[in-house]
Amino acid sequence: MAENMQVVKTENAPAAIGPYSQAVSAGGFLFCSGQIPLDPKTGHIVGETAGEQTVQVMANLSAVLEAAGCDLSHVVKTTIFLKDMNSFTAVNEAYAKAMGEHRPARATVEVARLPKDVLVEIDCIAVLG
After folding, report:
1. How far apart are CA 33 and CA 14, in angstroms?
2. Which CATH number does the domain housing residue 61 bear?
3. Distance of CA 24 to the CA centre of its chain
4. Would you say the pTM of this structure is higher than 0.70?
5. What Å distances lie between residue 13 and 31, 62, 64, 70, 89, CA to CA?
6. Which of 1, 10, 48, 115 has the CA that lies 20 to 30 A from 32?
7. Beta-carbon count within 10 A of 8 CB
8. Could you report the per-residue pLDDT of 81-113, keeping only the tens digit for each?
9. Into how many domains does the chain fold?
10. Please, what sign has the CA dihedral across residues 87, 90, 94, 99?
């Protein structure tokens, strides 16, 4: 790994379930891997609906950001991956509640399948500092 890159890891978010890191800081930015709605303590999926799952996803992203010394207000870009675009409104409501007045750039896409067959996954890029 390059000298100016640092892996960020926290037990307050689910451990990576593959050969990747929860996040990597580089060049003044934090690149957070996609988070799914897993309880970091039990490893179980939280929530039956996409909206409920989004609440846990945002909590997991917040924990990773906190481990790097920042929070959701530092996020400059998110990508939301949905199992079903019909869930957009519910996911958007939970996302907006977590983000407060902060409005980073964002893309939302429907995908055929997500890890552990969850309904939503979100990744982000944040500015450090």
Report:
1. 11
2. 3.30.1330.40
3. 13
4. yes
5. 15, 9, 6, 15, 25
6. 48
7. 20
8. 999 999 999 999 999 999 999 999 999 999 999
9. 1
10. positive
Domain that holds residue 11: 5-127
Partners of 26 in beta bridges = 5, 29
The helix-helix angle for 88-99 and 50-67 (nearest 10°) equals 30
Burial of 113 from C-beta contacts in 10 A (0-12 / 13-18 / 19+) = exposed
Q: Could you give the C-alpha distances from 127 to 26, 39, 46, 92, 104, in angstroms and in order? A: 10, 26, 28, 22, 11
Give the count of beta carbons closer than 10 Å to the beta carbon of residue 2. 8
E strands along 36-127, which residues? 75-82, 105-110, 120-127
User: Do 51 and 88 contact (CB within 8 A), yes or no?
Assistant: no
Per-residue pLDDT, 21: 97
